[in-house]
Amino acid sequence: MAERECLPTMDLLRSEPMQLARLIIPVESAHRVISYLGELGLFQFKDLNMEKSPFQRTYATQIKRCREMARKLRFFRDQMYKAGLLSSTWPTHGSEISLDELEVKLGELEVELIEMNANSEKLQRAYNELLEYRLVLKKAGEVFYPAQTRATTQQREHEHHRVERSIDSPLLLEQEITADLSKQVKLGYVSGLVQRDKSMAFERILFRATRGNVYLKQESVEEPVVDPVSGDKVEKNVFIVFHAGERAKSKVLKICDAFGANRYHFTDDTGKQYQMITEVTGKLSELKTTIDVGKHHWSSVVQAIGLQFEQWNTMVKKEKSIYHTLDMLSFDVTKKCLVAEGWCPVHATSQIQKALLRATIDSNSQVGAIFEVLHSKESPPTYFCTNKIMNAFQEIVNAYGVAKYQEANPGVYTAVTFPFLFAVMFGDWGHGICLFLASSFLILKEKKYSTQKLGDIMEMAFGGRYVIIMMSIFSIYTGLIYNEFFSVPFEFFGRSAYACRDSSCRDATTIGLIKVRNTYPFGVDPVWHGTRSELPFLNSLKMKMSILLGVAQMNLGIIMSYFNAKFFQNDLDIWYQFVPQMIFLNSLFGYLSLLIIVKWCTGSQADLYHVMIYMFLSPMDDLADNQLFVGQKYLQILLLFLALVAVPWMLIPKPFLLKKQHEERHQGGAYEPLHTLDENLEQQLNNRSRGGGHEEFQFSEVLVHQLIHTIEFVLGSVSNTASYLRLWALSLAHSELSSVFFEKVLLLAWGYNNSVILAIGVVVFIFATVGVLLVMETLSAFLHALRLHWVEFQNKFYQGDGYIFLPFSFSLINDDEE
Amino acid sequence: MGFMLTTLIFIVIGMIACLCTRICCNKGPSANLFHLTLVTTATVCCWMMWAIVYLAQMNPLIVPILSEGE
Description:
The structure holds 2 protein chains of 2 kinds.
Chain A: E1 18-26, H1 27-40, E2 44-45, H2 60-83, H3 99-168, H4 174-185, E3 187-195, H5 199-209, E4 215-220, E5 225-226, E6 233-234, E7 236-244, H6 246-258, E8 262-263, H7 270-328, E9 330-331, E10 337-345, H8 349-362, E11 370-374, H9 388-400, H10 411-426, H11 429-444, H12 446-451, H13 456-463, H14 465-482, E12 498-499, E13 514-515, H15 534-567, H16 571-602, H17 608-617, H18 632-651, H19 653-666, H20 679-686, H21 699-723, H22 726-751, H23 755-793, H24 810-817
Antiparallel strand pairs in A: 1-10, 1-11, 2-10, 3-7, 3-8, 4-7, 5-6, 9-10, 12-13
Chain B: H1 3-24, H2 29-58
Helix pairs in contact in B: 1-2
């Protein structure tokens, strides 16, 4: 596509050249081929069976098998967590095993484990019930006798009343009376355990339901008891309810059930009680041993699984992914071969062919797999071969949009300018050193942390460790330039340039010092900190610095668009977009930068706001005091004229020329390769489909598109330049916060001459610095530097509408599922 | 230490850094060009920042006015 240039191409500037390839694979070696390609990780398969639903595809049953196995493995993992085996201690290699054997083994293990779990649950429940029973036996015995005597006395009183009443009511027959009397002699009781928080309600409802005809005695159990149903430890009370009559008994039983109170039978015979207690204790110890043996067996099974778990897990995942990929291939006419289509980098051709050959040999297939390159008008995926350091920066660029195939990658410059702009906003070498220590700790412990599973925030910080270390190095540099170490300046590079006007220093606080020596050689003069005119000076310096840095970065962006246009051989873009854009931006804001530099060099007192505004409002006026150099007025008129000419230059010629090109092409007059068409236009019309042929050319659409682009650039040039002032704003905020914490916390605490207050002050200072400055300000400056790159820098040249190369690779799958 | 002298020092440091990168990690012409770009960009950024701060202090319009009780 592009001609070889004299200079070698640069790594990472443009996507690796990609090709569309077709593989024809005989069915018997298909599984192996896909497996080896997965290990290689350089081929992105296209789904050739898009119309089919997941159930219609060839390998749906295999995938179902793998899913079942994955489910069983998840079950095993839960059991392992319950047994307390940590994931980091599981070994990753074990003995070789085939998929069918694995399936059978997983099935057996699952059945065994489920059975063991069910049994142990039953045993545990029985055990807990027996424990409760023993408690009831012990406690109830203590309350029983006094309670019973009291209950029987109450009963006798009640009978007495009943008898008296029967005399007054002659309507009652004697039989009924005797029947009533005989019934009421029988005093029944129910004993059991109820939860302590429900005991009051229990008592109340019993009382109401039986109209006070029960006697309830409760005794609390000291320790919490394991509830047989729920398995948790709850506080319970032992209760005995004495009731009279069958109706009352049924009511009591229903209420007990409603409250979940477990009932246990209790004999009033002391001999039997003692026997029961010994029996229950015996049963308890028996159950305990059974449960313990069961648990031991369970844990040994789970541990055996643990040794092989990672290997099985990886295997199942691999197989599932292989079958998913196989599903994407289509059968050819003879039904004996599978056809695969996909993207791969051009440099990987030999590796892929070697893998295919190896697969053919290993599967003893008669026919080898065929690799052929196809030509297509589709836009290939974008692939950058990054190492671990550049990866983070590339991710930052990709988060905004993946580069279109072979367009210039802003990541190349972002790797340096992003940490640099961060540092401009963060400049303090004390804080920079703290960040440096933190990120170098992460880098030194890289190996350990990359295999562990970290929390979300730690993972982000760990992933960005190289970005953070670059940011910290640049911060140390800008901190030295701003001369701030936790807001304290130092005189490292020579003596300050300022001194008193005379030896008595009378005017130091009114008119100020004067410059007696050469400029302080590196950075901001240390005398400025704490003076009254510090802010006006620093504000002026930082605002002008932001404008200069901004204009420089925007110019870099426009120059990148030139390189893009040259690479895609788009002359139209060069003459009717790049040139007028450069002229417009530089005649206005480049001129402003020039004025700033001239003002600094000459020390003139010209008001630059006035100069710029009146350049537009009344360009013919005489400059008077604001003259910075000879011929300034004429230069300004010329630049204004150039800027005004540049706007229609950007707007009008291009649509007409595009129309002419389109007509020429479709008259068969001039054969021009497709890529000279405006890239935007092609994207709009083609939309990544396989079509081609006769596109519609709508002149009005193109004109509107160009109009929007022009307005965006022209208005954007003002707003983007102003946007760079955030470099000033954040840097000011940082230094002010830092200065406040230092003076109002640390120095204040120092002033009291008391070690307790000093210690408190130091602690507050450390927390404030770490929380506000090192965490919040870092995130804030990170975000704003990111915005400056994504919007102000990239909108000058970046299309960002490509898609990323996602090869079928086992290592990516492992990362995915984790 | 004038402006020109320090600029020269920056250029020299930049060239030394390029040489060091070339010596330490020489991985083919395209990778070398990439590393060269990174180092050059870093040097230019650092120089720009220093130069801006230096130029701003060469002919000052505002002088430091000490605050009371210094």
